[in-house]
Design brief:
Layout: H1 2-22, H2 27-36, H3 46-49, H4 67-76, H5 81-85, H6 91-102, E1 112-115, E2 118-120, E3 124-125, E4 133-139, E5 145-153, E6 160-165, E7 172-173, E8 178-185, E9 191-201, E10 207-217, E11 224-226, E12 230-237, E13 245-251, E14 259-265, E15 272-276, E16 289-296, E17 302-312, E18 320-330, E19 336-339, E20 342-349, E21 355-363, E22 369-378, E23 382-387, E24 392-393, E25 398-405, E26 411-421, E27 426-435, E28 442-444, E29 450-451, E30 455-456, E31 464-470, E32 476-484, E33 491-494, E34 502-503, E35 508-515, E36 521-531, E37 536-546, E38 555-558, E39 561-568, E40 575-582, E41 588-590, E42 592-596, E43 599-601, E44 613-615, E45 620-627, E46 633-643, E47 646-657, H7 682-706
Parallel strand pairs: 2-10, 3-10, 12-18, 20-27, 29-37, 30-37, 39-47
Antiparallel strand pairs: 1-4, 4-8, 5-7, 5-9, 6-8, 9-10, 11-13, 13-16, 14-17, 15-16, 17-18, 19-21, 21-25, 22-24, 22-26, 23-25, 26-27, 28-31, 31-35, 32-34, 32-36, 33-35, 36-37, 38-40, 40-45, 41-44, 42-46, 43-45, 46-47
Domain Cytochrome c: 25-105
Biased composition (Polar residues): 656-665
Protein name: Choice-of-anchor D domain-containing protein
Length: 707
């Protein structure tokens, strides 16, 4: 039993010593804990020992690299430390605190390593590029690694080139992250070639290098290059050849380029005609070039898909290069559309002035439209009163036909606007009703289409106003005012005209339209207005959405809220550090911070500079905030940080506590954060004494047994 006790005591001593030595302490994390307090919140070491342990306020340096000194102070509740911190720090965090106390000037810094340190390229023929090799730049530090420039220098710098990789000039590499840089080798002379790749940065040393080595082979080779890797013939008509497309083939090598085959293959090969100066048996001298021309003559509708292949003795491309040939073909087909597709005049007074409406005719086919005639059939009360349409209409073009209604008898009439052309016959139905009663006579101030200026997606173009007038001798009521068509959600309708709104004789109302694109490209809609008499009016709305990259400030805040806990009124104001990090892709300028409640910014040389503060992408700084309650009870407030029109908020809270008069001081040495004012660790001393007692007892036991 005695032997067991001795072994346990010895093991306890060794464990206590080993635990202190094995802890891989993080002084930077210790700094955060010292200045901000436990992760769970509460008082801070700095509130009792000052902003830096270097001042040794209340003997804090006794705990330098001695986590057991801190834990023993907690256990003994020295200076009330147990009440404040017992159970709030893990063993690792205590070790971090002790490490910071031992190194109070610790700062975050990047650490750069570039591996491998040498890139050796395989032998390459003069003028021929090798496969790329890469090196990895790693930031093993605890602050952002900022890259300055990436360059190649040295005797044969011109034989090596940067290309690819994720490292870039001016880039920022986060702590623990890495990026790659790639280089290629294209020898300009025979023999060994060498250069140095250098990356400048803000880590120790200021730069990292990689040696570049390669061997140039003197054997001359041909090298092929193409002016285009694909040809798109575009939209073609069956029976009509495309324009001739030309591809230039050049030889940038050191030997003649000889073609072994030049061919066209694929589903549409039969409609492709090839010509040009490139030919089998006709070498292309080093530094020279030739051309290949292709033309498509589709005979049927559908997609065009083929490939032009050139096989040669070139050292690159595996000896074969390919050019894809694409396009679409459609049969010639004129097409005609009308907007609106029907015209309704509604009630019109007999003998009153004619009511008019306009129909827009558009060529939506792929060939020119030949117009034979434009006229009105049906009731003689409806006439074609004007037309801008000639005998032909180009693809995508439009013209306008105006029809009028002058009833001579009571009752409904029907007619049609008939258009004869080389497209299928088109008829636009026309309706109206004659009456002897007084009627309204609605008319719009324009016939459209309304074209809005190109507008950024998410923004709005200038409003456009159209007037609805009533020149009749009776009031009208708007039955319907709606948006339809392809993209009605990209347009907004307002104004004094609306459904169920009445317009008196001789009066007007306004229709305001706005363009707010939700996507890029052409956008359109159809505005339909219907009156209670049955009259219908259409306005086409057109606009073009423009997509642009909008840079929005992005700021990360840690923590986003904090409770300072209970703080004595009139006592030392506790502080908390809030880390502000630019998590966006562009620099952000913080113009200011607005506080509410008993909270305020604290000037700190290790925190953010005075506002305005500009943070580069990935950069951060600490906003130090204090809590000074003036009234007992719960406190709440916030910090609002501004950048232009963008704001971020930090929620703050605390509890004000009235001070206790004539209270005896309870801090007898540690100041609430360290155990004593000297370097003595009472636990270590006790373990040492116990160990000596056990060793002495065991020796006496042996001696007694020997007798």
């Amino acid at each position: 039993m005695n032997r067991l006790i001795a072994r346990v005591a010895s093991a306890a001593l060794l464990f206590g010593l080993a635990a202190q030595a094995a802890q891989a302490a993080d002084a930077l994390n210790g700094k955060s804990l010292y200045l901000n307090g436990p992760v769970s919140g509460g008082a801070t070491c700095a509130s009792c020992h000052g902003p830096t342990p270097a001042n040794n306020v209340n003997g804090i340096l006794a705990a330098a690299n001695q986590p057991s000194v801190i834990s023993n102070a907690f256990a003994a509740n020295l200076g009330g430390m147990g009440s404040l911190f017992s159970g709030k720090f893990s063993a690792a965090e205590l070790a971090d605190l002790a490490a910071f106390i031992g190194n109070p000037n610790v700062t975050a810094a990047p650490a750069a390593s570039l591996a491998p340190t040498t890139l050796t390229f395989s032998g390459a023929n003069i003028g021929q590029a090798s496969a790329p090799l890469s090196a990895t730049l790693t930031n093993s530090g605890n602050a952002a690694l900022n890259i300055g420039t990436i360059s190649i220098g040295g005797a044969a710098a011109g034989d090596f080139a940067l290309g690819g990789g994720s490292c870039a000039n001016g880039a920022s590499i986060a702590a623990g992250a890495n990026c790659t840089v790639q280089a290629t080798f294209t020898p300009t002379a025979a023999g060994a070639r060498a250069a140095t790749l250098t990356i400048t940065h803000n880590a120790t040393g200021g730069s990292s290098t990689v040696s570049l080595n390669g061997t140039g082979n003197a054997t001359p080779q041909a090298t092929i290059g193409l002016s285009a890797s694909s040809v798109d013939f575009g939209k073609l008509l069956t029976g009509t050849p495309s324009a001739v497309s030309s591809i230039t083939v050049n030889n940038s090598g050191q030997a003649a380029l000889n073609f072994s085959a030049i061919s066209v293959s694929g589903a549409s090969a039969a409609i492709i005609t090839r010509a040009g100066t490139c030919a089998v048996g006709t070498p292309v001298a080093a530094g020279g070039s030739c051309t290949v021309t292709v033309q498509a003559a589709p005979t049927s509708a559908g997609a065009i898909a083929a490939s032009l292949t050139l096989a040669s003795n070139a050292s690159n491309g595996g000896g074969t290069v390919t050019v894809s040939l694409t396009g679409t073909a459609a049969a010639p087909a004129p097409a005609l559309s009308a907007t609106p597709s029907a015209v309704a005049f509604g009630l019109q007074t007999i003998g009153a002035a004619a009511a008019t409406q306009t129909v827009t005719l558009a060529n939506t086919g792929n060939v020119a439209l030949s117009i034979g005639s434009v006229g009105v059939t049906g009731s003689t009360a409806v006439k074609l009163s004007g037309s801008t349409c000639g005998t032909t209409l180009a693809v995508g073009a439009s013209c306008a036909a105006t029809v009028s209604f002058t009833p001579t008898t009571e009752g409904a009439v029907t007619a049609a606007l008939a258009v004869a052309s080389n497209a299928p016959a088109l008829q636009v139905g026309i309706t109206g009703t004659g009456t002897t009663q007084a009627t309204a006579k609605p008319a719009l101030s324009e016939t459209g289409p309304i074209a809005f200026a190109d507008t950024q997606v998410g923004s709005s173009a200038a409003d456009h106003t159209t007037t609805l007038g009533n020149s009749g001798n009776a009031a009208l009521k708007i039955a319907t005012l709606t948006l339809g068509g392809t993209n009605p959600g990209d347009f907004v309708v307002g104004g004094t005209c609306a459904a169920n709104v009445s317009v008196s004789s001789g009066a007007t109302c306004t229709i305001t339209t706005a363009f707010k694109p939700t996507a890029s490209g052409a956008r359109s809609a159809d505005l339909l207005l219907v009156t209670d008499s049955g009259a219908q009016f259409h306005l086409t709305l057109n606009g073009n959405g423009v997509a642009v990259v909008v840079t929005t400030p992005s700021l990360g805040i840690s923590p986003q809220s904090f409770d300072f806990g209970s703080v004595v009124i009139g006592g030392t104001a506790p502080t908390r550090r809030f880390t502000l990090t630019n998590s966006g892709a562009a620099a952000v300028t913080l113009s200011g911070a607005t506080f509410s409640g008993p909270f305020a910014a604290v000037a700190d040389s290790t925190g953010c500079a005075a506002f305005p503060v500009t943070l580069q992408p990935g950069a951060s700084c600490d906003l130090v905030v204090s809590y000074t309650p003036t009234n007992a009870g719960a406190s709440s407030g916030s910090v609002t940080i501004q950048s232009g029109s963008t704001t971020w908020n930090i929620a703050l809270s605390g509890q004000g506590a009235a001070s206790t008069p004539n209270a005896a001081p309870s801090n007898h040495g540690g100041g609430g954060c360290s155990a004593s004012q000297d370097v003595t660790d009472p636990t270590l001393a006790a373990l040492l004494v116990l160990s000596l007692v056990v060793i002495g007892w065991r020796r006496r036991s042996r001696n007694g047994g020997a007798k």
